[in-house]
Design a protein that fits this description.
The structure is a single chain. The chain is of the alpha/beta class. About 30% of the residues lie in helices and about 15% in strands. It has helices at about 30, 35-40, 45-50, 60-65, 95-105, 120-135, 150-155, 170-180, 195-205, 220-230, 250-255, 265, 280-285, 310-315, 400-405, 415-430, 440-445, 445-455, and strands at about 85-90, 110-115, 140, 160-165, 185, 210-215, 240-245, 295-305, 335-340, 345-350, 365, 370, 375-380, 460-465. Strands 13-12-11-7-10-9-8-14 form an eight-stranded mixed β-sheet. Strands 3-2-1-4-5-6 form a six-stranded parallel β-sheet, sandwiched between helices. Helix 9 runs antiparallel to helix 17 (about 440-445).
Length: about 500
């Protein structure tokens, strides 16, 4: 079952009252004047980065040099995991998302769930019961308040920390895991400010531990098939792509039992940009080898009026409901254009506030043709010459080895969640370089603060920092991998 049918779409709640202390940092009033904090390093427009030249004349080299802090450690590009027979995992956040993802970690051989953490004891106990039901030893349980994850991260018997909590917590939890010598994977978005993204890049390089953006939608069957076809040259020279998170979440955002707090709806009172770019950005970035021969240079964003949530509230919420005190500023539809160093264009969309069939768009175009998803269809030369879409199911020979080995994977998002967990745990067990790294995580997340700033600046382009510090110019492997264990081993 994919996103369209399953509401477990993103980083879900970890427990009641989960916003309590940190929510003070993100009141509507404070964010209204937080342009500097949101932008942090590299928040200026392309024109500001090169004051003597127009934005059109700014070269990739000039943008690379602008607003890039000095490296504190060594690059994590191409750094493999240490090989281990068993990957020991600690899970933080066991609500809708984390409570279902634990099943996938338990389904992968060579993985042991050592500890679980959630301030709601019942959720942690349900997760612990799943561990013992899978035949593993009872995990340690951390439920002593919203900061008990710090004690989990201090354990000496954990290799990987998985974070599935409300967005406010992601940066601090990833930082704590890295400082305690753990690899960490975080549900999207990785962080909410550019200076936080830079800090996680620096910490990953200093601690020699990987920090990764999970639930990135890169492991879908269509996404991996298009990736392999693109790398084989079937689309010719790549020119443009598009990705989105268009998912009607109005009912869920006003459901007090789903997004507890209700933390996700409150972000629509704080930021105006693309709150959830990773689902759409990640796959297209892979098609175009972003950070592996090309890079995202700038983003220009515009937003529609914010009307959808207020209209839904008027129709469905009773008088006196706390939501009537909220003022929504998040654009119902945010559209962003990302320019790459090679001149390619990536369109990103975000809309969770209006009626719309589920779509991540997922398109790619080049000099030989185009693919578009939802529904999947293709038109490439010389296979198609009649101006009619072709049948994408005829290209199964280009399926990634993951989908050939696991034809009917468990879990949400059409099975891509399992593929991600399986592949990540495989890389850790075998001591391989991960398919994606902290530079990808920072790049895919950067539209969150930058689209907000661009909309505030009436669409002015915002520089996307070179988180790789020049390493993007070197071609290297990524998602388009070979099976390291052979076709017979699952």
């Amino acid at each position: 079952m994919n996103d369209a049918a399953q509401p477990n779409d993103g980083t879900q709640d970890s427990g009641e009252g989960s916003l309590s202390r940190r929510s003070v940092l993100w009141t509507t009033a404070s964010v209204a004047g937080a342009g500097l904090a949101l932008g942090g390093l590299g928040s200026g427009t392309a024109a500001a980065a090169t004051p003597t030249r127009s934005p059109e004349a700014a070269t990739a080299e000039q943008l690379d040099r602008a607003a890039v802090p000095k490296r504190q450690g060594r690059t994590m590009v191409g750094v493999p995991f240490d090989r281990r027979s068993t990957v020991r995992v600690g899970l933080v956040g066991l609500g809708n998302r984390g409570g279902s993802m634990i099943d996938l970690f338990l389904a992968v051989s060579g993985v042991q769930v050592v500890a679980v953490c959630d301030p709601v004891r019942a959720k942690a106990e349900r997760a612990a019961a799943k561990v013992t039901a899978a035949g593993q030893p009872a995990p340690a349980v951390y439920t002593n308040g919203e900061d008990d994850y710090e004690n989990l991260c201090k354990r000496g018997d954990i290799d990987f920390v998985y974070v599935a909590t409300p967005w406010d917590f992601h940066f601090e939890m990833a930082k704590t895991a890295l400082l305690n010598g753990k690899h960490v994977g975080v549900e999207c978005p990785l962080a909410l400010q550019l200076d936080q993204l830079w800090e996680l890049v620096d910490l990953s390089e200093r601690t020699r531990r990987h920090c990764m953006q999970l639930e990135n939608c890169c492991y879908g069957q269509n996404e991996l098939r298009v990736l392999r076809m693109a790398h084989a040259g079937l689309f010719g020279d790549l020119l443009h792509g598009a990705g989105a998170y268009n998912h009607d979440l109005r009912g869920l955002m006003f459901d007090p039992g789903y997004y507890e707090g209700p933390w996700r709806r409150l972000w629509h009172t704080r930021l105006r940009g693309d709150l959830y770019p990773n689902h759409g950005f990640g796959p297209v970035a892979n098609y175009m080898d972003i950070n592996r021969g090309d890079r995202a240079v700038s983003i220009t964003s515009v937003g529609s009026p914010s009307l959808g949530l207020a209209e839904y509230r008027e129709k469905h919420m009773p008088a006196g409901d706390p939501s009537w005190k909220e003022t929504y500023v998040e654009s119902d539809r945010t559209i962003s254009l990302v320019q790459t160093a090679k001149g390619r264009v990536i369109r990103l969309e975000h809309d969770v506030s209006t009626p719309h069939p589920y779509s991540r768009i997922n398109s790619l175009g080049g000099t030989k043709g185009v693919f578009e998803d939802y529904p999947a269809r293709i038109y490439i030369e010389p296979d198609h010459t009649d101006d009619n879409w072709g049948d994408f199911s005829k290209y199964t020979q280009w399926d990634h080895w993951l989908w050939k080995k696991h034809a009917n994977p468990p879990g949400g998002h059409g099975g891509m969640d399992y593929m991600l967990v399986f592949r990540l745990m495989q890389c850790m067990r075998l001591g391989l370089v991960p398919d994606f790294d902290v530079y990808d995580a920072a790049t895919w997340t950067s539209p969150v603060p930058l689209s907000h700033l661009s909309i505030k600046a009436k669409g002015a382009p915002q520089q996307i920092p070179d988180f790789t510090r020049g390493e993007w110019k070197k071609a290297r492997s990524g998602m388009d991998s070979e099976d390291p264990e052979g076709p017979e081993k699952a």
